[in-house]
Amino acid sequence: MKQLTLLSSIIALCLHTYAQSLQYAYPVHFLHLTIEQQPVQMAYMDVPSPKPNGQTVLLLHGKNFNGYYWKDVIAALNNTGYRVVVPDQVGWGQSDKPNLHYSFQMLAANTKKLLDSLGIAKVHVIGHSMGGMLATRFALMYSTTVDKLIYEDPIGLEDYKTFVPYQPLDLQYAHELKATFESIKKYQQGYYPEWKPEYEQYVAAQYAALQIPDFKTATWASAITYEMIYEQPVVYEFKNITRPTLIIIGQEDRTIVGKSLLSKEVAAQNGNYPALGKWLHQQINHSKLIELEGVGHIPHIQVPEQFMNAVLDFLK
């Protein structure tokens, strides 16, 4: 038993060291904010193009992600002239993870302050997963700042609280405290129809973020932001989006926030992204829908060339 405990400790230490050594592809800067009377640092990458076209793209990450997983998208956009701004939202990645009342309005306001600090008046916005919910709130709050809007398999296309059982915050926190490198990997395997070894780096990126500043602090922020997604639906407001919009949907995606709390029967009735993508397309005037066959929740990782071709064609 002692040998097993020692082996488990060694494995955990190795995984921790591996995750901590993971580096973002571009220099990380910090914006100093005051939120609810607390000093907070917001991490971000601001990557200029060597051949600038005068346009900027803002990349908004998902719930189980951070700026790391945008690295290839940043490079592709840079190569075609776009400046790229990639925040780690407060509560994620290399940003501080304070105990706050998290809201999409707060995250959108933080992002606007970041753009203002950089002197950027107009952006194209790409929001993936939870970043799609944030992109929606950002576009509704700051419509004159958004030129074009791109959704990549956004969550929030359903009102989860109407069919996912309520989970008290303390219970959600206790559940998330059980997270390990292997449990995160098992969860992320559901993002893809077929798992590949190169996807493991994104498990490491999520695991690394949970060590900043420490596991319990990061996990509490993660639990609070699960509650934010559950309690603050945007599904009723897509019809108010006025910006030209591209919707990219992986047809194998079946993501549901809180899916583990559902019976198989209820889960089968929800998270149908082929149908949800068509519904979103109908909700937003001036929108275009691209359906990617055989693709799961993260097209920009699974099929980067198809994803970037769609994005660059839309941004022309």
Write a structural description.
- This protein is α/β, with parallel strands linked by helices and 316 residues long.
- The chain has one domain: Alpha/Beta hydrolase fold, catalytic domain (Rossmann fold, 3-Layer(aba) Sandwich), CATH 3.40.50.
- The chain is 41% helix and 16% strand.
- It is built from twelve helices and eight strands.
- Helix 3 crosses helix 4, helix 5 packs across helix 8 and helix 6 packs across helix 7.
- The N terminus is likely disordered.
CATH homology superfamily: Alpha/Beta hydrolase fold, catalytic domain
How far apart are the first and last residues' alpha carbons, in Å?
62 Å
| CATH-defined architecture | 3-Layer(aba) Sandwich
Low-confidence regions: 1-20
Number of helices: 12
The count of strands amounts to 8
Instruction: Give the overall shape.
Output: globular
Mind telling me the CATH class? Alpha Beta
Write the element-wise H/E pattern from the N-terminal end onward.
Answer: HEEEHEHEHEHHHHEHHEHH
Q: Rounded to an integer, what's the Rg over CA atoms?
A: 19 Å
The pLDDT mean sits at 94
Record the strand order, biggest sheet. 1-2-4-3-5-6-7-8
**Total individual domains:** 1
CATH T-level fold name = Rossmann fold
> What's the story with the biggest beta sheet?
8 strands, mixed
Q: What percent of residues are in strands?
A: 15-25%
Give helix % range.
40-55%
